[in-house]
């Protein structure tokens, strides 16, 4: 997501977790006294904030342009204005972390709505995140799994990590590289682990001669 992304242009008239202003109603008491409906309660608007794994590793500064409805209590006039929000994505933040802004959403008779941006992690082409750890899958063919293999894997900080196995290597085997994962949000100087996870690709078919040879070997 780039800077100044206008992702909240749909605020006007949007629905979902956003609480809007309910229609004003009037009712009459027993003696014919006209009563005005209670002032609508101001709620919190929640919206996703997609970020990359690299941004969650390094931290990032985001600018968001939103459209918000304003209300003039003196005149009763309503209008729409643009507002820029600055937010900091700190290293180690996880999916589900909320970045909160108080009183910056739509203005209603009862006050101004709060906005909560909820971090979502974009899919990564190499890593899968588990807490503070990063899982790096490595796919081997059967020959490599049995006789040995070697790979060079990029790390989240831009380095290269050589990994290898002498064989046999079982499917699901994991090798842990400490302090190569994500920073811990409450202790940014500490990091989780990077875990290489082996997947073995088995052949879909074998000839009779191959089966016989395998039986002799194994």
Compact description:
The chain has helices at residues 53-58, 142-147, 208-217, and strands at 5-8, 26-28, 34-36, 44-51, 60-71, 78-89, 98-101, 107-108, 111-112, 114-121, 128-130, 133-141, 149-154, 160-165, 174-177, 183-184, 187-191, 194-201. The protein has 218 residues and is mainly β. The model is unreliable at 1-30 (pLDDT under 50).
Keywords:
disordered N terminus; 3-stranded mixed β-sheet; 46% strand; 4-stranded mixed β-sheet; mainly beta; 218 residues
Mean pLDDT: 84
The neighbouring-strand order within the major sheet is: 11-12-18-15
Strand content: over 45%
User: What is the C-alpha radius of gyration, as a whole number of Å?
Assistant: 28 Å
| Number of separate helices | 3
Low-confidence stretches: 1-30
End-to-end separation in angstroms reads 53 Å
Oligomer: single chain
Determine the fraction of residues in helical runs and give it as a percent range: 10-25%
- Please report the total strand number as a whole number: 18
Question: What is the general shape?
Answer: elongated
Provide the succession of SSEs: EEEEHEEEEEEEEHEEEEEEH
- The chain-level structural class is mainly beta
Largest sheet: 4 strands, mixed
List the helices and strands and how they pair.
Blueprint: E1 5-8, E2 26-28, E3 34-36, E4 44-51, H1 53-58, E5 60-71, E6 78-89, E7 98-101, E8 107-108, E9 111-112, E10 114-121, E11 128-130, E12 133-141, H2 142-147, E13 149-154, E14 160-165, E15 174-177, E16 183-184, E17 187-191, E18 194-201, H3 208-217
């Amino acid at each position: 997501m780039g800077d100044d992304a206008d992702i909240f242009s749909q605020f006007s008239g949007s629905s979902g977790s956003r609480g809007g202003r309910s229609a004003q109603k009037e009712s009459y008491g027993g003696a014919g006294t006209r009563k005005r409906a209670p002032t609508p309660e101001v709620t919190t608007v929640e919206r996703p904030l997609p970020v990359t794994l690299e941004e969650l590793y390094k931290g990032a500064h985001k600018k968001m342009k939103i459209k918000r409805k304003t209300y003039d209590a003196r005149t009763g006039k309503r209008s729409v204005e643009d507002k820029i929000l600055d937010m900091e994505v700190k290293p180690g933040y996880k999916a589900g972390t909320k970045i909160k802004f108080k009183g910056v959403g739509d203005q209603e008779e009862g006050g101004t709505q709060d906005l909560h941006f909820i971090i979502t992690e974009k899919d990564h082409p190499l890593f899968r995140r588990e807490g503070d750890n990063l899982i790096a899958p490595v796919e081997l063919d059967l020959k490599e799994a049995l006789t040995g293999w070697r790979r060079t894997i990029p790390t989240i900080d831009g380095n290269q990590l050589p990994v290898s196995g002498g064989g046999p290597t079982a499917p699901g085997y994991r090798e842990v590289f400490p302090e190569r994962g994500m920073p811990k949000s409450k202790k940014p100087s500490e990091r989780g682990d990077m875990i290489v996870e082996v997947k073995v690709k088995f052949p879909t078919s074998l000839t009779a001669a191959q089966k016989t040879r395998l039986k002799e070997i194994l």
